[in-house]
Amino acid sequence: MKTEDFDFELPERLIAQTPLEKRDASKLLVLNRNTGEVKHKVFTDIIDYLNKDDVLVLNDTKVIPARLIGHKEETDAVIELLLLKDLGDNTWECLSKPAKRIKEDTIVSFGNGLLKAQCTMCKDDGIRQYKLIYDGILYEILDKLGEMPLPPYIHEKLKEKDRYQTVYAKNIGSAAAPTAGLHFTNELLEKIKIKGIKIAFVTLHVGLGTFRPVVVEDVRTHHMHSEYYQMSKEVADILNSAKKNNSKIISVGTTSTRTLETIMQLYGKFQECSGNTEIFIYPGFKFQAIDALITNFHLPKSTLVMLVSAFSKKEFILNAYSEAIKNNYRFFSFGDAMLIGDYE
Fold first, then answer.
1. What is the DSSP string of 130-161?
2. What is the number of domains present in the chain?
3. How far apart (Å, rounded) are the C-alpha atoms in residues 343 and 341?
4. CB within 8 A of 50, min separation 6: which ones?
5. Domain that holds residue 108
6. pLDDT tens, 258-275?
7. Can you give the CATH number for the domain in which 320 is found?
8. How far, in Å, CA of 53 to CA of 86, rounded?
9. How much is the pLDDT for 161?
């Protein structure tokens, strides 16, 4: 299975640079995963595809202002860090630029010394581990010094930080937003609840995999970086009950999907748990957890295009993407949405 098989041409003008004024005003492409049929809707129509006792699963991770610009203490060289994973004891795994300037014991200073990072380990692919040195509460310091870690294809400055957060973001720890959830408003979620649809939250802290393209020729040799996930007993009970009663489980985003499918692979059911997952979903994968998927439009040759191709068919996905391009859908993080399932 070749990475090239998941490539497509995308006009640069369709890469969304800013969020829409109204979160739920985006377009919605509905794809029947079995027939390839495509329908064009708006996101508020999503409620028409959800039925009483269905379970909508959302990732409640919260993005930290993880992008820091500082200076190397010895030389004053400009260094950028992207905080990726909290390893405990004030030690973080970070993406460093330029990484070649960072050796063990190098100290990078931010905000005139308000925060310092001392390198404790050098890894491959620009990854370094740092011990963070500061007084006070780290997340308050990051709010002062950090920027939202927008993907590299977004060149516009984000006017409001909370537009790169879901309205239900709760558990701090992500280096990127679970972008399928950005379309939901509190009002829309309330209407969904009133209709009798259950809403369940899992957590997956989005990490390095979001920023890494697939560079290998053979998809099967790509390595996913691990990401932390968590599920509560309450949510596990809701999901197991849905399975028992043949109610649909609709996953919001690839991050929720990876969490649910990881747990089902490990335990054969949903249960209270937490851990790190390196699950890589590509065509041939046998889904056990989800019945439908709400997602955005993803980068060519990305693991995310491979995941949605596994849930439907690669030919159906690429045809749906072609339809989206013809109809001027907005792509990637601030772009439009897609619902994939066995919907007529």
1. EEEEESS-HHHHHHHH-B----TT--SPPS-G
2. 2
3. 5
4. 56, 192, 195, 197, 250
5. 67-145
6. 999 999 999 999 999 999
7. 3.40.1780.10
8. 36
9. 85
pTM, two decimal places: 0.92
**Euclidean distance between CA atoms 126 and 335, whole angstroms:** 29
Tell me: do 332 and 260 sit in the same domain. yes
Mean pLDDT score, 15-33: 97
Please tell me whether residues 179 and 192 are part of one structural domain: yes
Are 42 and 87 in the same domain? no
Q: Report the alpha-carbon distance of residue 307 to residue 309 in Å, rounded.
A: 5
- Is 118's pLDDT higher than 90? yes
Residue 97 shares a structural domain with residue 182: no
Q: Which of 286, 289, 310 is nearest to 298 (CA)?
A: 310
- pLDDT at residue 114 tops 90: yes
Residue with structure tokens 């601030």?
A: 334
Q: Are residues 141 and 35 in the same domain?
A: no
First to last CA, the chain: 30
State pLDDT tens for residues 179-227.
Answer: 999 999 999 999 999 999 999 999 999 987 766 678 899 999 998 888 9
- Quick one: 177 and 258 in the same domain? yes
* 222 and 276 together in one domain: yes
* CATH number of 109's domain: 2.40.10.240
List of residues 6+ apart from 272 with CB closer than 8 A: 231, 232, 233, 236
Q: Is residue 266 part of a domain?
A: yes
Residue position matching structure tokens 């308050």: 140
